[in-house]
Records
---
Amino acid sequence: MSSRALRPQAAPAAGAAARRGARRAAAASPPPVILVKHAQPFRLASRESHPESTIVTAGAVSIGTGALAVMAGPCSIESRQQIRETARRVKAAGADMLRGGAYKPRTSPYDFQGLGRKALEWLAEAGRESGLPVVTEVLSPEDVDLVAEFADLLQVGARNMQNYALLRRLATATKPVLLKRGPSATIQEWLLAAEYLLSGGNLQVVLCERGIRTFETATRNTLDLAGVALVKQLTHLPVIVDPSHGTGKRALVAPASRAAAAVGADGLLIEVHPCPGRALSDGEQSLDPAEFAELMGTLRPLALAARA
Ligand code: PEP
Ligand code: MN
């Protein structure tokens, strides 16, 4: 583009009479102001622009249909046997998807960081064996192709909600995305993060509330269930809840899951470990398979009541 194109056009010379005439005309009929108004800045995510609810498909599972989609599995994939056993047990209890971390975003660099590609292979194998589609986290743009080879749903962790390079890369991925809310993100910032995925071409986005940081330290995070009800009204995208990170305490996972189902969440993401006491990450907030099965038996009536 030439620099000339950037300069404003010179106004045609006009006499005093012409200028007076123009001023009178302007006073009589002000120039039309054309406003393209979007009440919400997250224009593609908003229900205003898209009133009907979006259904996201991960493998053979549909999220956002009105049924509760339950994703369960360990925080981290620790061994082939651990993920296969978890898959078998959560499937038997009625889970719809298998979760498990291969690339872990840990607060301390000295903590277990995940087993990477090997863990992805074990996860995919466990998913095939049990018939469960799998969800796992992708930490960086360079890993998207590799993780997408194995995963049915690509998780963006809370710490990465505003990693715009990652969001832009995932916008062009062929797999759906699970976008967790950042620990300090407002609802508007969360929906604008989703907007990066939608505006970049990936319309298959699930939101996940996983607790936010508040003054309260008695729970690991403060699970914002009123926020879930609000976001369900603001957006057409499915919204699920992670009661494990949302509370940080095993004893609170079942009540928080039931509350999430009752408030209208489209699904749950729950940490389950065959032996939580020996978990390499998040054991204190993980259910064992029996506790998970017991919880599953109580959820359906609550989810139905939320839709009545
Ligand atoms: C996880 O799901 O194990 C995880 C790290 O979650 P978050 O990004 O919500 O902390
Ligand atoms: Mn975890």
Note: Residues 1-14 have pLDDT under 50 and may be disordered.
---
Amino acid sequence: MNIDKLIEQMTLEEKAGLCSGLDFWHTKPVERLNISSVMVSDGPHGLRKQDDSSDHIGVNDSIKAVCFPAGCAAAASFDRNLMARLGSALALECQAEGVGVILGPAMNIKRSPLCGRNFEYLSEDPYLAGELAAAYTNAVQEKNIGVSLKHFAANNQEHRRMSSSSDVDERTLREIYLTPFEIAVKKAKPWTVMCSYNRINGVFSSENKWLLTDVLRDEWGFNGYVMTDWGAIVDRVKGLEAGLELEMPASGGIHDQEIVEAVRKGVLDEKILNRACRRLLEINSRYVENAQPETIWDKDTDNQLSAQLAEECIVLLKNDDNVLPLKKGEKVAFIGEFAENPRFQGGGSSHINCTEIVSALKASGEYADIQYAKGFSIEKEEMNFDLMHEAVETARTTQAAVIFAGLPDLYESEGYDRKHMSLPEGQDRLIEAVAAVNPNTIVVLHNGSPVCMPWIQSVKGVVEAYLGGQAVGKAVVRILFGEANPCGRLAESFPFKVEDNPSYLFFGGNKERTEYREGIFVGYRYYDKKKMDVLFPFGYGLSYTTFEYENLVVDKDRMDDTECVTVKVDVRNTGRMTGKDVVQLYVRDIESTEIRPIRELKGFEKIELKPGEKTTVTFVLDKRSFAYFEMKINNWYVESGDFLIQIGRSSRDILLETKIWVNSTDSLPVHYDMNSIFIDIMSSERGCKLVEEYMKLLFFDEQNSESAEQAITAEMAEAMMHYTPLRALFSFSDGDKITKEKLNRLIDDLNKDER
Ligand code: BGC
């Protein structure tokens, strides 16, 4: 199809119409020109295709589909391959159901455990979120179905989500909030990106040219189309100019008409409209020309896949005295309504109308003599004494007690944020009561975001099952009884309490804005810098086997920032069970003039090893692994110096490290004037030489009398000299030896050097 020819044949009205939805889920067709309508549907962890009544908040039913592990769980796999398996399955479902674009992955950074939509999002770490989203995107698009990376950008709370401004400085935006999108755009070329509802530093994302064009297209090379989040449009014409192609859903023709009028009045250049149509038609034709409506998707196959994926997302958080795995055939208490009715997905636009649900109770039959006690009602906050009594009496007689606890639907959902980080009080009390009578108490958690665990010292085991999809019950039981070896790792830190979270003071913001005052110190970047204890750190997770790490080698110990370094490390399974481990690579800038986190994740690989088996894991690091975003050059910059390459099993468990010198091939612009201070001037060899004679003029050097030496230590004198500006030479030195002309000549000389 020659798209430019097609656009030439379209009327102004048809072109404007193409830029908004036909209805909730379709783009507009232009029948006389054979332009087809394309269907889009939510995502991200299952297909929410609505055939009849439509809505974007999950009120009306969608077709029956398989609910896979939600983002919170999928990310805990730390596994690109798992994301790809998920993406492939969903793409096949889309092909079979005639859906051209699946809305997701949802990849906003988890700034606070309170964000109501954390369950859909991936991580607090931008590298992890970006890598996982890229793997998912590549797999979906390989099958000629598009994705829509969402929600672009800085949409990290639900409170006032359609109006609030996320006020974030640019370095923080670049290093934390934009990086996941950047990685996915560069590595996977998404067909579409969905702009967020919120404003960023006062400008709505839907009309933010800097975001949608300068950064997304011009810097990152995005070549798909941008759609709005549902109803995120503000000024339609401004949006088009900023680089927003598709308004979703429809606006009853109102905004289309605004576009037409703007072109007629000469306010909007028609070329901009043509550009938007071209982008839309290019992407839509990719689907239309490769649609495979004859595809059949098998619900049982996908249900089984859902169980397998869930298994690999579960994180074993505590396993004292190897209380897990449970012995088969034993008498075990299953307590808590979630054992019967697991919570496996969150509320809102990602809500899947499941084909079937497997509870742990249902899945456990063949493994053990299970004694079930309801313990609590999911929707009840307070304790029910009768249910608790029954649960305690049941737990008293069994070898182990597994409590299925978690957050009720009401506690976390799209549309609003959580109020606190606690489980319902009744559940916390039940756990304490059961643990008091049964020494082998294990808690299984169903939640989309961290919870407080006031009972952590009283129980022997904790299994974080997250919102693991419709087959989570089967996965949990297989983990509990050792049929599967836990291999999930936390993609987010679990603080002890919400007040520990770096965004706590500002999260939610006021009526207009939310200030991201913690800056780049999000998640472990903050806890590590503050040396603050956390309940469970980023990257953490246990296994039923053990691994040993050795032979960390790099192929060079000095490099320019234009080069790459290859890092290798050997990992051996030293236990008795086949298992998977996540090898994590962090980079630490040992000494930096910029304020930087202690360490940042720059590589991860999930590997599977049989008992005794060893493998070598390889990472390649480039400039970006060592860089920070330097505002002076509006670009990524490596400050020359030593860096540590650290290999660990969590951000708090570094096992091996090695040093590398990275040399910057960029230089920062420097300009000297009367206010320049000595220490900055002396950072270059030439600067040192040029100011040598002036330093001598400073009286801080002269310490002859004993009392002067007591008053001014050598350290103090040095510091005073370092922080003295050139202009102070007039005040602090022998006036005869220094003139304004002389200093101006010095400044000219210094500036010559740096140009
Ligand atoms: C959500 C999006 C979703 C869209 C369509 C919006 O409310 O924020 O994530 O894709 O609705 O359902």
Note: DSSP finds 23 helices and 27 strands in the chain.
---
Amino acid sequence: MRIRVLGSAAGGGFPQWNCNCRNCDGLRKGSIKARSRTQSSIAVSADGESWILFNASPDIRQQLEAFPRMQPGRTVRDTAIAGVVLIDGHIDHTTGLLILREGAPLRIYCTDAVFEDLSTGHPILNVLHHFCGVRRTRIPVGRPSDFRVEDAPKLRLSAIPLASKPPPFSPHRNDPRPGDNIGIRVEDEETGAVLFYAPGLGSVGERVVQCMSESDCILVDGTFWSEDELLEEGIAGKRASEMGHLPQSGDHGMISVLRPFAHARRVLIHINNTNPILNEESEERSIVEAAGIEVAYDGMEITL
Ligand code: MLT
Ligand code: MN
Ligand code: ZN
């Protein structure tokens, strides 16, 4: 299985257009050692030819251009994207769908909860019907949980519902449903390799722990270093837990959660621009690395 990190930042990217936090300002001025990053998305393939796109970020045009395999050029209009799997309905994971409107009907895989939000509160799927059209396949959140993406051979997927809130525009903002946000297990049937991907992970339940223990690569929520990071930077915002993100630091933080799974590659993704781990010379970055945890970057490739 091949995994390509298309975008490793959280919503807003790094640097964010209007942000002068220590990281964004430092990156622009060249006063910190850090790399710019586009918004959250990965692509996964078993054969290197047919790829599943996980989430479609507003930066997708730039991300595809940086990865020529996505444009094989077999016919006058072509793509290597077999289907798009959405793990939630957030802006940073879905608005890139509009950029893909020129092609064949988009094959979109999402839960009923996400489908409803993208047909009502933010009716992006309705809009797409006036362009390329959409062929939507339901991701089950109960059991049996397995599903496949057509034309992406040898990959077996399953969803794990995660506790979180749907996006602000959702009619269900204040009554969350299973399927608003999912983690995805991807198994390569030929090699047996398993990936667990969950860029939004607010709390870690039994199913998530079980899945992590079976995975060769755990690619998870790296949004915030601390619970109050936005407030500490002087940015009016919510706490990490209110946004459905488990911070890395603290007794029960992501570093502690990942500690028992040293058999696997453990990689943080969906990193917010305020997170001190983006500064490669920060103390926080050295703590993460000393724990054997990697920090995803755009263009990172992982082969399992
Ligand atoms: C999140 O990951 O919490 C959301 O993408 C935040 C946002 O919508 O900007
Ligand atoms: Mn996000
Ligand atoms: Zn910033």
Note: The longest strand covers residues 155-161.
---
Amino acid sequence: MLKSAICDLLGIKYPVFQGGMAWIADGKLAAAVSEGGGLGIIAAGNAPADYVRKEIRTARSLTSKPVGVNIMLMSPYADEVAKVVVEEKVEVVTTGAGNPSKYMKDWLAADIKVIPVVASVAMAKLMTRVGASAVIAEGGESGGHVGELTTMVLVPQVCDATDLPVIAAGGIADGRGVAAAFMLGAQGVQMGTRFLSAYECTIHPEYKKKILKATDLCTMVTGKRLGHPVRSLRTQFARDYSKAEYGGMNDEDLEALGTGALRRAVQEGDNEHGYFLSGQIAAMVNKEQPAADIVREVIEEAEPILMGASRWVE
Ligand code: TUI
């Protein structure tokens, strides 16, 4: 059975996190993943504190297992959400798109395990110093906000830079990816795109269809010019945005073009005005299934691969 320090640290059966995808990872999806033995994570995204509190309570009503909340640090509501996770006694907080140092004192005092996403060695070292319990090393194959480095390059360097358990993310959607992550030194994985196909993931059917039909070159990165590169499906909207970005549209109008686009994809399936965030691995996500099956399946696929690795050595 594939187990690691992260399982004991968090009291979970399988070393599998479900990524905190904005507007997507709600209390229902997170509870299904946690019930299935992984770590379900509610995404705060750009939502206000009351939304996050409600989703935490929904998750609590569906599972007694630990759940996490992901705080997107660029959100205007990050400060208030940082308080809600303390009030609601969330077991685990993950952070993304920034440096969570200013919240660490309050979270650690509340016995919250803090697991920041890092996209560089320097950030991994800093998070180790300020009291993180583990770090998530997310490579640029991921969907949404992306860093510069790939998972293959980032994960081993982060493992060398910290004694904390490292969770690999970006480009992982099956047992081969899980096995590869462990080979690189990770003690767990986080998957986002794979969970878009979960029955409990309540995105618009058009979004799900796009993910299930995606092929290898179906994603692209936009938003670099404004300093927030984001990976999404290569839809009409993404092409239009890219054209505007490189065609000289001013920053304000470009910002306005992106505002609300993620919500329009998730809730309305709007091809022309929606921003369908997705990782590069979407091409390998081909079936709908319960979230708990995803968690178990990727681990059951990884085990024989890791057991059989010695066949390469004479
Ligand atoms: O946060 C993510 N992925 C996201 S957030 C998001 S919401 C959004 N919507 C529209 C536009 C922009 C964002 C969608 N996807 N992943 C975690 C992640 N964090 N990836 C990279 C980083 C990161 C980058 C820089 C973490 C720390 C960091 O530190 C910079 C610094 O020094 O402050």
Note: The longest strand covers residues 67-72.
